[in-house]
Design a protein that fits this description.
Blueprint: H1 2-12, H2 59-71, H3 73-93, E1 99-112, H4 113-119, E2 128-129, E3 132-148, H5 153-219, H6 225-259, H7 269-273, H8 289-295, H9 297-318, E4 323-334, E5 346-355, H10 362-429, H11 435-470
Antiparallel strand pairs: 1-3, 2-3, 3-4, 4-5
Length: 485
């Protein structure tokens, strides 16, 4: 009875755990408030929800991002890492269960005459030889051991594995955000370069009209060879821009194919036909710092890694104390297989095992210091991740607001430049403006149109960057498709 009480007390104490208990670090009050950039007046303070790319209202973009989140290799790698982390957690949890082992064997043995007599071996008639005895021996056994988690080594290991699993899940969400943002950015770039190439072609056509007009006026005696050459320069400069824009468009399409899990040769038809970058016309919801920190997967990943490293301090601290295991075994052994079930073939052992690296515990204390240093680094990494998240949103807000203002100004400039160029052409045709005045007007229109097309592409990319910094869109995504061998 006393032995049973002792084992019960030891088992009851198994819930105790040495080492520090984890407490989630609270961010500073200033980091949890509203964003400070003046651009917040241009956005919605409500928190973003769901898949942000639907705000672009572009079915082709929706389909491409859905494909990327399903087939992208980075997402598949992150998903495999999560499955691995869950398996490690399952392995850590199994330490709470007894370790068992079964065995069975058959041996043909030979023992010398003197050794057999000293061991009391019962020989089978006809199995003796002049120098000894030969006989069969059958055994079957069962062993079991259980670690009494008196100081929490097992529970802290499970705690660390659970936090590692949550951190890996956050890494998968972060991979989804990055892939969705890169897919949207590549799509916007392909559309933007197509738009800039078309603007360059329009400029070529306008310049060719000017060149044709200048050539006819020269043939009529109202122009010079120099004016024709100047018009030619403008037309060829506009034409020279088209190949570079087309090359960048194809490069973006190749990147888009790889992001969606396809070889570059399989260019998406809808993306190849796009001629205008997607753009969010509504006010973008951004929320505040507190919602951002709760939503960003990299912040959650850093916090869970900190929790895992804190738990590992307890794992290292448990090595300072004795390790207690309860073990037992039962076996059957006989020279005849039919005798294995008899009482004479049964044997067993049962008892505790205590091991303790004492008094030399310097190795254990060194590992505790290592775990504490690792935890301090994880805390600093968590604080840095929080600051990075806030910085990225503030920067994205500032750049988005700046590009909005720039785009609006360029749109108004394009209207004015187009009007001025048309008026100058009419005045030049009637002889009221010089060729240089027409040339300046054409240059202004070409440069303004090119700048507006570039701004349209930059505005789409600024919106994508803002959505990526806000860290949403991963909440209800499907599991990626595993690779087939």
């Amino acid at each position: 009875m006393k032995r049973l009480l002792t084992l019960a007390c030891a088992t009851a104490l198994a819930g105790c755990a040495v080492g520090p208990d984890y407490r989630r670090p609270e961010p500073q009050r200033a980091t949890a408030g509203a964003f400070v950039d003046p651009a917040t007046a241009r956005v919605d303070v409500s928190s973003p929800t769901g898949a942000w790319w639907h705000l672009f209202n572009d079915p082709a973009l929706d389909r491409l991002i859905a494909d990327a989140l399903t087939y992208n290799t980075d997402v598949r790698i992150a998903s495999a890492n999560l499955r691995q982390a869950r398996a490690i957690l399952s392995e850590a949890r199994s330490a709470r269960l007894p370790t068992t082992d079964t065995s069975a064997s058959y041996t043909r043995q030979r023992i010398g005459t003197g050794a057999a007599a000293s061991r009391g071996v019962i020989t089978t008639p006809g199995a003796d030889t002049p120098s000894g005895f030969e006989f069969d021996f059958f055994t079957a056994g069962f062993d079991a051991s259980y670690e009494v988690d008196l100081f929490g080594r097992v529970s802290r290991s499970i705690e660390a594995a659970r936090a590692d699993t949550a951190a890996t899940a956050a890494a998968l969400d972060a991979a989804r955000i990055a892939v969705a943002a890169e897919t949207a950015r590549s799509y916007a770039q392909a559309c933007g370069f197509a738009n800039q190439a078309e603007v360059a072609r329009q400029t070529v056509r306008l310049q060719e009209r000017t060149l044709s007009l200048t050539s006819r006026l020269r043939e009529a005696g109202r122009g010079t060879r120099r004016e024709v050459d100047q018009a030619t320069v403008l037309a060829e400069q506009a034409r020279a821009q088209v190949p570079s824009f087309e090359a960048e468009r194809r490069a973006a399409l190749y990147a888009l194919a790889a992001l969606t899990g396809r070889p570059p040769a399989e260019i998406d038809g809808a993306a190849a036909a796009c001629t205008a970058p997607p753009r969010v016309r509504s006010v973008i919801p951004v929320g505040d710092g507190a919602a951002l920190l709760a939503r960003r997967p990299d912040v959650r990943q850093a916090e869970r890694l900190l929790a895992a490293d804190t738990a590992r301090i307890g794992v290292a601290t448990a090595a300072l104390y004795p390790s207690i295991s309860l073990g037992g075994s039962a076996s059957l052994g006989a020279q005849r297989i039919g005798d294995l079930g008899k009482a004479s073939s049964f044997s067993f052992s049962l008892g505790p095992l205590i091991s303790w690296s004492f008094p030399n515990i310097s190795v254990a204390r060194a590992r505790i210091r290592q775990a504490e240093a690792t935890t301090s680094a994880s805390l600093a990494r968590f604080n840095g991740t929080v600051l990075t998240a806030l910085r990225e949103v503030e920067q994205a807000l500032a750049r988005y607001a700046g590009e909005l203002d720039r785009n609006g100004a360029l749109a108004r400039a394009d209207v004015a430049a187009t009007s001025a160029a048309e008026i100058s052409r009419l005045r030049f045709t009637t002889g009221r403006d010089s060729f240089l005045q027409l040339l300046d007007a054409e240059r202004d229109r070409a440069s303004t149109r090119a700048a507006l097309a570039s701004s349209n592409a930059s505005l789409s990319e600024a919106q994508v960057s803002l959505f990526k910094a806000l860290g949403g869109g991963w909440e209800a995504e499907p599991a990626p498709t595993p690779a087939t061998p």
